[in-house]
Specification:
Layout: H1 2-11, H2 16-25, E1 40-42, H3 46-53, H4 57-69, E2 73-77, E3 85-89, H5 91-111, E4 116-123, E5 130-137
Antiparallel strand pairs: 1-3, 2-3, 4-5
Length: 138
């Protein structure tokens, strides 16, 4: 599974700052289970996360948007505990979503090389199921 996770990460071609942030985010995940990894909760503030990763706050925000766009993390605003921003790291859902993304791109390449697909990834944090809804774009 680790090799598959690394393969999926490389497919998205992250920048140096995105890799640094990813390294810190992944500390929240328990990798002891071979077949399935639970969602990890990143237990630090954004300034602390930026400091741990060695990036500026701006680079952190850009990296978080990037990792959210490819379904590796989800971001929630806590309404009970100091209104903190809560980050959920979900590598298992990321692997599933990347597989769906690859399959969508392969089928669009066969149909018409000038068309692509853009879509929405929805992840149910309770069940871990991922729904990818592609939309054709020109």
């Amino acid at each position: 599974m680790i090799k598959l996770l690394n393969h999926c990460i490389e497919l998205h071609n992250p920048t140096d700052a995105e890799r640094k942030v990813l390294k810190v985010l992944m500390r929240s995940v328990d990798f002891k289970e071979e077949d399935y990894w639970d969602t990890g909760v990143v237990d630090m503030s954004l300034p602390q996360l930026a400091k741990e990763a060695g990036v500026s706050l701006w680079e952190l925000i850009r990296a978080l948007f990037f990792w959210q766009s490819v379904a590796l993390i989800s971001i929630d605003v806590g309404r009970e505990e100091n209104d903190d921003i809560i980050l959920f790291c979900q590598p298992y859902a990321f692997i599933e979503a990347t597989g769906m993304f690859e399959a969508g791109n392969e089928s669009s390449d066969e149909l018409d090389s000038e068309r692509g697909y853009q879509g929405f990834l929805l992840v149910d944090l309770d069940t871990g199921s991922t729904i990818y809804s592609p939309r054709e774009c020109m």
